[in-house]
Amino acid sequence: MEQKKLDRINELARKSKAEGLSAEEKIEQAQLRSEYIAAYRASLVAALENTYIVDEKGNKTKVQKKKREIH
Fold first, then answer.
1. The pTM is what?
2. Rounded to an integer, what is the distance from CA 66 to the centroid of its chain?
C-alpha cells in the first residue's frame, strides 16, 4: 500500500477523534481501511508461503494451509 494512502488513513483517524468525519470521509475511511487490510493479509500469506519448519533432525517441512472441518 502506498505511503500516501497510509498517511490519509492516519489523517482521517486523527480528524475523527478531534472533530468527527463527514459522511463522505467516513466512506473514504472505510474503503482505505479495507484496502489496507487486504494488503496486510496478502503480505502475511506471502510470508507464510515461504515459511518452513525445521525439525530436530534438520528436515525442512513447508507450512501447509490448515484444512477446516465442517460439522
1. 0.72
2. 19
Asked if pLDDT for residue 23 goes beyond 80, the answer is yes
Q: Three-state SS across the chain?
A: CCHHHHHHHHHHHHHHHHCCCCHHHHHHHHHHHHHHHHHHHHHHHHHHHCCEEECCCCCEEECCCCCCCCC
Q: How far apart are the first and last CA of the chain?
A: 38
Domain extent, residue 35, equals 3-62
Q: Label the pairing between strands 60-62 and 52-54.
A: antiparallel
42 assigned to some structural domain: yes
Number of domains comprising the chain: 1
Return d(Cα 46, Cα 13) in angstroms, integer.
Answer: 28
The confidence band for 70, taking pLDDT boundaries of 50, 70 and 90, is: confident
